[in-house]
């Protein structure tokens, strides 16, 4: 029950001091006291049943009072009940979001980046994550409906705030340049957290004070994975080499605490929290021939049916045999490996919540360039919205000499970039692959969708600021 003070800080634990040590020893949490039968808890902790009942009743009343549904004040209860009975129109009118200053991108995002939630922006290096974040730092200063008329807090774990790039966007973006009042760099507070300890201290103690003092409406963490990788993934981190399992368990616990902290900040202060996340390569084997059983297993997945696509399975788990006749006429058995991956396994399900691997008809290049957002499934459950930025190379004619390859390598002409919504509480997912994703380019004025540039009469030449 070590989480009782975190769930109910004002709960009078002194009255139940005799019970708490036994409950902690048997790992009875506050959730257990609220959901499990009192008889089961008493047997598990070896405590008197009547005292357990009194404790459970006191905790339930404290939770109800904290939620405002059992305050004893009729006026307060009426106010709380009215807030819970809001109509759909009331909910729509209270909706606030930060615009990306691009109609196509905002349309895919359901209006922009919502307040009250954790939004993750994930993609490989050079995909445009920081460029998106810089646009949000400026657009949040605009009045509604494009912004929230507030300031922004930029927390970096890798490098300082690129003020030169922000100034360039202010000069060249038509919306920012013509805004009145015009966004300014003075309304952006930046801080660098070089390690996990300083990051936790800043988020837990300094950020809440800064939100109230400076009227912050957007908190950006760029990036969330950097300090965790440095702390837990280096060889021998946290102890003797070989204790990777203990390190991963500790990291998972820290990620859950971070997620709860950021969610509380977003919900209690009605602000938007946006975190950038890195990605790692996803390695998978490919069987020779896909069997009917594999297709049935894939089709049985509810996620596959919802997205309308059947990506190729990647884990060979069984094989079939057949015979072919060679030139001598002698039947020769040949074994083909088939893929019958469990549709409920993580390897299969992650295609629909990572942003990569859900294309029903993948090209050779896309199937070899699969990525997975860092920090694993634990962190995925902490965020409300995941936005994936995908980039793919475009090759030109000709070959470049390569010492390791006699045939040479193809000439890289440019990169194409897409934005897709993987999951979100306020808008549906973009869908499998990049067919319905929004293609964008990085220009001097910021991030612009290709369709929006064509609509505005801007020539789309593929010359991004990023190579």
From TrEMBL:
Domain RecA family profile: 94-279
SUPFAM superfamilies listed in its UniProt record: P-loop containing nucleoside triphosphate hydrolases (SSF52540)
UniProt GO MF annotations: ATP binding; ATP-dependent DNA damage sensor activity; DNA strand exchange activity; double-stranded DNA binding; single-stranded DNA binding
PROSITE patterns linked: RECA_2 (PS50162)
Assigned keywords, A-Z: ATP-binding, DNA damage, DNA repair, Nucleotide-binding, Nucleus
One GO term describing the cellular component: nucleus
KW Nucleotide-binding (keyword) present: yes
GO BP term (any one): DNA strand invasion
Name this protein carries in UniProt: RecA family profile 1 domain-containing protein
